[in-house]
Amino acid sequence: MSGITTGQSCATIFSPSSNTSRAELLCSVQRYHHRGYHARAPKNSLLACAFGGGYYFNASAGVVSTFHCITFRRNSGVIFLAGMGEQLDARFRLVGFLPLIFFLVQAVHYWRYGDAGNLLWMCNVGDLLLALGLFLAHRELIRAAAIWTIPGLAVWIRYVLLASGFYFSTTLAHVGGIIVGLIVLRRVRMDRIAWIYAFAWYLFMQIASRLTTSPALNVNVAHRIQPGWENLFSSYWKFWIVMCAVVAAGLWLIGLVLSWIWPARQQMENDKWKMTNGK
């Protein structure tokens, strides 16, 4: 198991059949990235955690999991140790200043009109999340923020642009946000579980909006039923449950489409393996 040269990947292989009771720690910290290198796991290996991302391949079952910890079956298989791909360089991270500026311009706008609570709308605070993700080179944050720019733009057009007219700050936040989000996705790519992070972000902002904003603003519809829907729901919580289900389905669909357009490199490897093996 000593020939693994996948860039910046680590895995701990626990082998009860080994003569020693310790776990073998396999680490490679080379700065270059090699694709296609594989390590064959012992038949009795129970658990592998690839801290840089790992995938368990089985000749009959295909990919078992895309999470960082993969439970092995009793039969033999192959671990594909995949790093995070090319790292986000410092110049690319500087793009984060754009959504940060968009957010700050919106903050000034709402501060002038005394509606600071509106900054917590998903479409507004999403610019801040996108900036944070870029500064930290955190792909999950970037993907979650990028997914939210699409429904955010649609809601803004329906309830702000068409209802109240053009405002420079809100246009910059929504149009600028989606442009930056889609541009960075060309580099970061999209996987098929990113929608889960986007949905978790939504639930977090629901709690934050309910605890910190005025009920009169109804930020993120976190306080009461959206006007016009009162006749369909007898209580707010029934409305909220349905809304969460619709949001989750929408985020999943958006993430799926984006993963078709800009698939993550690991997903591309998975799909190629499945096609090669007729799965």
Which radius of gyration do the C-alpha atoms yield? Answer: 22 Å
Task: Estimate the global geometry from the Cα principal axes.
Answer: globular
Number of strands: 8
The succession of helices and strands, N to C, reads EEEEEEEEHHHHHHHH
Output the number of helix runs.
8
Mean pLDDT: 75
Q: Which residue ranges are poorly predicted, with pLDDT under 50 across at least 5 consecutive positions?
A: 1-86
Task: Report helical residue fraction.
Answer: 40-55%
Structural class: alpha+beta
Number of domains: 2
Main sheet properties:
4 strands, antiparallel
Q: What strand order characterises the main sheet?
A: 2-1-4-7
Strand content: 5-15%
Cα(first) to Cα(last) distance is 28 Å
If you had to describe this structure to a student in words, what would you say it looks like?
The chain is α+β, with helices and mostly antiparallel strands and 279 residues long. It contains 8 helices and 8 strands; from the N terminus they run ββββββββαααααααα. The strands form 2 sheets. The protein has a 4-stranded antiparallel beta sheet with strand order 2-1-4-7, with no helix packed on it. A 4-stranded antiparallel beta sheet has the order 3-8-5-6, with helices on one face. A hairpin with a 3-residue loop joins strand 5 and strand 6 (62-63). Helix 2 (97-113) runs antiparallel to helix 3 and helix 3 (122-136) runs antiparallel to helix 4. The chain is globular and about 55 Å long. Mean pLDDT is 75; it is low at 1-86.
